[in-house]
Structure prediction request, 95 residues.
Amino acid sequence: MAQYYVYILASGRHGTLYVGMTGDLIRRVYEHREKLTPGFTSRYGVTRLVHFEVFDDPASAIAREKQIKGWRRDYKTNVIERDNPDWHDLYETLC
Prediction:
């Protein structure tokens, strides 16, 4: 069964945030880290995976991504710090 992910990247602790959705978290975060796609994350150095959630269907993941994107910054920070209070880069735990 396919899995879908909503993720939050940060430039550093309490730094610039980016929220995205993908069907291949390892590949997508790698692309951000290596700046393979020009855009927001490569321009602002947003490469640290600080939060992710797993979904069984793309519609649920897209809805959650939109929900998080609509939140104020302090809500996003609370979600990150609930499970990752030190803002560790979770990418290393995936590989």
